Amino acid sequence: xxxxxxxxxxxxxxxxxxxxxxxxxxxxxxxxxxxxxxxxxxxxxxxxxxxxxxxxxxxxxxxxxxxxxxxxxxxxxxxxxxxxxxxxxxxxxxxxxxxxxxxxxxxxxxxxxxxxxxxxxxxxxxxxxxxxxxxxxxxxxxxxxxxxxxxxxxxxxxxxxxxxxxxxxxxxxxxxxxxxxxxxxxxxxxxxxxxxxxxxxxxxxxxxxxxxxxxxxxxxxxxxxxxxxxxxxxxxxxxxxxxxxxxxxxxxxxxxxxxxxxxxxxxxxxxxxxxxxxxxxxx
Length: 283
What we know:
- The protein is an alpha+beta fold.
- It has seven helices and seven strands.
- It has helices spanning 2-20, 25-39, 56-66, 77-80, 95-103, 123-128, 266-282; strands at residues 53-54, 83-89, 135-146, 149-162, 188-190, 193-195, 245-246.
- A four-stranded mixed sheet has the order 1-3-4-2.
- The longest helix is centred in the N-terminal third of the chain and has 19 residues, at 2-20.
């Protein structure tokens, strides 16, 4: 009897742990809507800023990498010409706080001089408001441990962007009267953002079947040190998430340093889960 209860408890814990790391449809919508809301509020205002929409291909890339539980950027980002922001928290995941944390870096970013102090982080913010980036896909994963970070039982959020931002020597957008430079294919001004006349709502998921490897390539580039986000996190009460960053990741000043990690494989987690469930059913 004791063994049955132990197996059931273990299986339930694994199931709940996996579920805790998965973004809900509401959280996906929140991430997209918050991006667009904040992109419309940049200062100085943007002459051209386009809407970001959800992309399932990017979500799959983010999901595969998040499952490795590595507190560092995906090494394949440059090859895939994608940008990336990271966030981690040990408490209840809050999508709004994650996006606001990234956007909050704007206080240290000097738009006119395109400059961020070396001891500050601005890369998450600039990727969020990079005018040419118009697609995003995010995924979260519940990690028992994070290689490169002294966190246990934390939720890692990975958001990938396409096309990538943070090109060396470039500002994230051109300043000017909102929508004054909307291109012909995005002629409508909606909340200071250029949109197509029939663009679906940002919280709706487009049916994206396009392979990233078939997308037009953008030139490879190296971001300046102050423009490249580091993993960002804070140790906070159980109900308050911390925040990470990397190649579009960020880490708050906690003395934590990002390091490479081999990560864990989703296949081994799923096989372990199935084994536990099978044993519970047999017994």
